[in-house]
Amino acid sequence: MQQILSTKELPQCSFTEFALTVYPFLELSPFHRRYYEVLEAFAQGRIRKLIVSVPPQHGKSVGATTLLPAYMLGLDPDTRIAIASYSGTLASKFNRRVQRIISSREYGEIFPETTIKQGTKPAGYIRTSDEVEIIGRKGELISVGREGSLTGNRVDCFILDDLYKDAMEAQSPVVRENCWEWYTSVVRTRMHNTSRELIVFTRWHEEDLIGRLMRSERCRPLNSLSDIESVEAGEWLYLNYEAIKASPPTELDPRHEGEALWPEQQSRELLEQKRNLDPAHFEAMYQGHPTSREGLLYSDKFREYDTLPRDIVERSNYTDTADTGSDYLASICYSVDSDGVIYVTDVVYTQEAMEISEQLVAQMLTNNDTRRAVVESNNGGRGFARALQRLAPRVRIEWFHQSGNKEARILSNSATALHLIRMPRGWHLRWPEFYAHLVTYKRLFRANRHDDAADAITGIVEREARTSGESQHRRLRFL
Length: 479
Known about the structure:
The chain has 17 helices and 15 strands. It is α/β, with parallel strands linked by helices and 479 residues long. The chain has two domains: 7-285, 3-Layer(aba) Sandwich (Rossmann fold); 303-477, Nucleotidyltransferase, domain 5 (2-Layer Sandwich). The termini are far apart.
């Protein structure tokens, strides 16, 4: 049960306390409370340029576009705020919700100096669904749809909430360009030296407004509230909340890998079902890591198989251990037929610690009747290989040092990988993260967050696509 303080105890209440007072039905998870702390820092002016990406249906708009404007007008009734969204209708809906909060008894007890027109009185003040003025002060709240006009209005704070209606709009180069043009010619021209900007989106495309701003202006990740103190003038702070935690824990998002953001409403199981439907869209909308389908190295062009052929001549494994804490261990079991076609049979793709991943890989080797496993010895790989040999004594474990340039290796072997490798039908359901990282891998190397899946696939191709002699002899030896 949420603890709601009496309004008499809240003359200068926090944003979270304010939210629970005017919206007593709110259910705030630990994620929401940290998110609201960031919004409070923005309301107080400690953050001037803030980008937050949040998955769909996780309460981003209630906090940023409904409660926050009301709170800011209470803190400073002279603030001119503009809310923008993909349509004027939606922006007006946010405006009406803010007005209802300001008109409430609870709000009046917290912020008695912030009042708006009631009925026809007092005369001369504006109150419509698109604009409302604070009585006796300079403050106002304006709402506008994307590409709408703000002629003559000076704005102290812009709140931009979802400027793209859906995937179809976000995938349209024309819509994206129009959105950028509107932002630069309308939003930026209404701002002054001390104006603030909050952009809160569900990501759709790498070239959406957030993507273009992060490319054209200075931007740094917001991991802790202490990061605010070191922000330079004109610099953006960026906070991305992943639906399923995949990045390292931070003060503002201390979840461990695999934990759901709001499990009471969007469980890990439900999120995995959504990821299985379309991993690429899930990476964009729910994880905040959009990738354009243009310039993909593999896309979804890997051919699939239903059953292994009878002429299998080799059962092997290739393992690339994680380089850093955010990397994945990629271990792939595969079979090779007499024509040299490679059939992936099982995958361990994890960020778990070595003591756990060793057990997972050893069990996979045993289950797949693997005869030989090759481990890259870089970054602790030799110790991992020795542990595997102890845990799976019937498998011959080899290790080697990978000295080739990773980018050149991946790019030069990509066509061969698509030609030789077969994936089991439904592999996107069996290994969703492995699938997502592989099919969204881009030719532009620095555009990729993870190269572990592509690197492991490349390692297999390099070892199995050698000209016969040695390769054929090795296969017969390990049958």
